[in-house]
Each structure stands twice: as structure tokens, then as C-alpha cells.
Amino acid sequence: MMRHRTASGSSAAAAAQDQELSADEANNNNDAHNKRSSSPHSMDMTTPTTTRNMSLLFSPRGKSVASMSFALAIHLGGYECSRAAVMALFTSDGLGFGKSKKDKSQESELSALPMAVGCVSPFAVALVWFYGKTLSHGGPSYALRTHTLIVAASQIVVGWILRMFEQCLDAVEDDEDYDNGVCSLRSVDNVKTMSQVLLFTLFVFQSAYVQLLYAQHWAFISSVLTAEEGSRLFAPIAGLGSIGSTLAAGSVSILVERSGLIGLMYMAGISYIFSALLANMAFSTAKSNGFEPSSMSKSEKNEEPQPQSSSSTSSDGKGAYAPINSGSKDSPSSPSTNATIPCLKKNNIFQQAYSLFNRVPVLGALFVEVIISQCLSSLVNYIYLYKLKVAITDDSLRAGWSGKFYAWINGVSGIFQFFIIPLLLKHCEAHRIWLFMPSLMMICTLYQFGTYKTSELFGASASFFCIKTMEYSLRGAANEMLYVSLDYESRYLGKKVITLIAGKFGKSVMAVALAVSVVYYGDNDNLMWYLLATATIFTCLWMFSSVRLHSLIDASSKR
Q1: Which of 522, 517, 389 is nearest to 456 (CA)?
Q2: Which of 58, 204, 339, 396 is a good FRET partner for 130, with 20 to 30 A between their CA atoms?
Q3: For residue 222, pLDDT beyond 90
Q4: How many Cβ atoms from other residues are within 10 Å of residue 401's Cβ?
């Protein structure tokens, strides 16, 4: 099993400055950790699980984790509302990239989608840099609060602008001359162009931001909880997020009837504001009780995190998967380790990531595994949308079917997180999940490839259902159980790079390939065969990368 992590974490390391940690600062970090480890709420493994859970729940640490968990659930619920509204507007005939009312032979809205997805990765890289700047300026609490409010403002402001565009287009009542009509904001063509640019930008913006904020919620939770507590609570916390997503997705049709798509964007913005308030409450509780995940305060902007202990690396300085300390859970780091982490001396985040992956090979293997799996996820998503559009031609029926389908995905993910994953972790080690996911996907892909001419929507839906359910449940649990036993830099810089760059890069590469394929093959009957053959190849590559990742984790956990 994974070894116990013993020093308190800090929030993201993307913008760490090039200066050394003093002995006094390191001792402050150690004191904060020792306070957490020796608190009356820290119980040994012989204490009944229910007693330990209740004791933690009513402690300050439990209250801070509960606040952040609800912030995470509300954030994901807001994203479900935002995703439904933006996707519907993106593909609409009025404001979005749907077919023109005058030219019904215009290419379908799916042609614009791969291009938008392809732009997410470059924007995510810029977002990492911007987040690092706000992190170094005010610390993790300030960074999470600021960026959550930015996302909230984007939903409300863009919704207000789109409302004006919608009112302008509604004023043009002559459908025969619709495309040549003139409204209060110049011609209809100009309004549509502006709305399309705005929706394209918002789609890229929110797709990149959701993973960043999600990762920072989890960064706080995994820093406050110990590894043993995390093994019990990570799955239920993730399940709470699934409940928030399921409730929001299931309520979309009702909310749209009452307030419209733009009203749904306003609701998403309000949800993000509540999420920011709860997250800020969690940080305030942690700070007032002395277990804040970062020792950084507004008056200590340039303070560096506690470095990894020398006992956590191998003799060649390239420890793969080790906790900060290998000794007793209450023992502080050795004073001799008060040196700056080498990776953080790099000026460029890519240099930092390269140095980190050399020092911690398991993160390099995870980086590759995430790229391949996200390529496959993007491809399976496109096949599902393609089959869905062919099987259900009516836009309203298709949107309703898709909404219910996502609600089922979130609901089943919640069942996994609350019941199946905790039971699974009692009988096998967490890193076995990395072998299970591609194995299940291989069955789905081979079935779909063998029956693609006769299965219609079932095969595509089954594959998409499986990969999304695993992403929302199994992958989240496996990732957090891996990160929780790593050192500061691996948990935060590594998580940020892998979540934003690897994940978005994989989706973007596949999106560009899909855009080229659609242009080259068009409606060729062989297009689906090529797509499914590619999906089978990527499933095999995912299996190989998962086996390598599993072997590295297994080897390092035995050290």
C-alpha cells in the first residue's frame, strides 16, 4: 500500500520564487504539521472507523474539509449548468454555430466543436502561468478565491451581453430576409459573428478553468487530511461532487423552461460565488487553527515551501514515489534538509516539470498515461456525438436525451465513489485501478468496433458511458491516493502540470486530428471505421502506459 505522508502540504508550486528556505521557516512548517499529527483528533489505526470519522468531522480540520468539499460540489454543479447552457448556445441556429435559417445546407455545428476543443490546451498553458502569478502574489486562498470569482463574472457578464444580442435578433421578424436584416446592433451577420466569437471564447475559457479550480479544491483537501484519512474519505468527498453534478444536470430541463439558457448561465455564476465563499471559509478555519496548508501569508509572499527530506529520495537523487519522510509520522524533517528544491530553481514551468519528472519518474509515467487516455476520451466523445446526431435528428429530443445520459453518468459515478471504491480499496491496493480502467475500455472498444454497422447508438453510448464514469470516479480516487503520499512539489506542481497541460494537450491533439479527418473524409462511409480503428489503437496504448505506471508505483511502494 502507499506509504504515509507526514508533512503538511502547501498549495500549488507553479510560481515558486528562486530563493532559499530559511531554517526558521522550515521549523514553522514542521510545527504546524506536528500540531496536526499530535492533535487529540489524530487517532491510531485501532480506533473504530466510525469513531475516527465522527471525531474528525467535529474537529476544526473536519469542518474545513467539509467546507471545501461543499465548495467543490457546488462548483461542479455550477459547471453542469454552465456546460449545458454554453453547449446549447454554441450549437444553436440563432447565436451559435448552427445552421443558418436561410441556408439549410450549411455544415453542421459539430464541425466547429473540434476546433474549440483544440484551443483549450494552449489557453490552459497560459492559465497555469496566470494562476502562478496570483499564487505568488497572495497565496493559495487568494488565488482560488480570485479565479473562482473570475469564472463567476465571466458567466454573468457574457450572459448579459448574449441577452442583448438575443433581443437584437428577436427584433428581426422577417425570416425570409433574416440573414440580411438589420437590428439595433447593426446587421444580423455582424451580431452572429460577435456572438459566435464570444461563445467560442467562453467555451475554451470554462473548459480550461474547470480542471484548474477542481484541482485546487482537491489540493487543499489532500493537504489537510492524512493518507490514512484520505483512504477513507476521498471517495465519499468525490461522491459528494457527483451528487452536486447529478442534481444540477437533472434540473437543467426544469431550469431552462423557467429562466432560459442565459438564465442558466446566471445561475452558474451565482453558484461559483457561493463556492468561492465556502472555499474561503475553509482556508479561514485552517488558518485560525494553525493547520493552513501553506505557511504563506500576505506578508510572506516570497516564502518557499518546505523541501523534500533527503530520506525520500534514492541515492541518485531520483526518488520515484516516496513520502516526505520515511520515519515516524510525528517526526519532523531533518534540519539538514533546509535547501531549496532543485526543480523550483527553474524559471520556466516546463523546465520545472521536466526536472520534476526526472526526479519522480512515476509522475512522468502518469503524464504519458493521461495524454493517451485523454486522446481516447476525446475520440470516444466525438464518436458518441456523431452517432447521437445520426440516431436522434430532432435538436430538442437530442438535448434532452443527452442531459439524462449525463445525469446517469454522474449518478453511477456517485455510487462508485460512495460504495464501490471504498469496498474495493479494502481488498486491493489503489494502484490496481490503473490496470482495471484500460481493461474495461478494451472490452467496450472491441465490441463497438465489431458491431459498429448494427449497434447504432448503443455501442458508442456504452463506450462513452464507461470512460466518463471512470474519469469521474475511479481515476479521481487513484490520482488522489497517488498524490497524497508524494512531497510538496509533486503534489502541487506535478498535479497542476498533469491536470492542465497533459489532460488538455491530449484532448487538443485529438481534436485537431478529428478536425482534419472531418475535412478530408467528409461524410465518407469509411470515416466511422477509421475512427473506431484509431480508438482501438489508443486503447492498446493506454493499456501499455497503465502497465508501466502500475509497475513504477508497485516498485516504489515496496521500498
Answers
A1: 389
A2: 339
A3: no
A4: 16
